[in-house]
Each structure stands twice: as C-alpha cells, then as structure tokens.
Design brief:
By secondary structure, this protein is mainly alpha-helical. It has three helices and two strands; from the N terminus they run βααβα. The longest helix has 27 residues.
Length: about 100
C-alpha cells in the first residue's frame, strides 16, 4: 500500500472462473448506484407531490443500502481511497462555494 491510500487489509477471496463474494457485492453496489440515478430522474419528473414523496422514500432506502454496501466493501479492503492534499480540498471547496454563489445570484 502506498502512503497516499486509505484502505483496510483486503479480505482474500477465491480466484478463478466462479463468482466470489467480492464479485457479488461489487455487482450489488453497481446496481444500487444505477437505481439511485434512476430514482433521482423519477423524482425530478414526478407529476405530483404524493408521487414525488413515494419516490423519495424509496430513493432514501436505496441510498442507505448503497452506503452500507460501500462501507462493507471498504471494511473488507475492496475499496481503496486516495488521500487528498489539503490544498486540493480547499481549492475544490472554494470552487463549489463560488458555483453556489453564482447560482444564487
């Protein structure tokens, strides 16, 4: 592991042609991400508040499950993150802040 990565020790899984635990959970995470995107579209196109609220409730459940799945993968060492330099974080925060100000202008 390089010093720029944030990760846990990787849980080893069998290799080969058969699907393993990591393959299944990776497929689940991908599906949940796609479902989230689709529910966002459905919410923005909902024809009334009741339908919007139903979509929002389902979206919140899917988003929570997606986060739990990601956290499980991170805990098993199957998801690695890269440390960001403080200056890059500050630059991004300033950019987003400026974009928000521009939207509110």
């Amino acid at each position: 592991m390089n010093n720029n990565q944030v990760c846990n020790t990787e849980k080893q899984v069998p290799t080969g042609i058969n699907l393993n635990e990591k393959d299944y959970i990776n497929a689940l995470l991908s599906s949940l991400k796609d479902m989230e995107k689709n529910y966002v579209i459905a919410m923005t196109e909902a024809s009334n508040e009741t339908l919007y609220n139903q979509y929002k409730t389902i979206f919140d459940s899917i988003a929570s499950l997606q986060r739990d799945t990601y956290e499980l993968m991170f805990r098993y060492g199957w998801y690695k993150l890269e440390k960001a330099e403080e200056q890059k974080i500050n630059d991004k925060a300033n950019t987003l802040s400026q974009e928000l100000q521009d939207l509110n202008a």
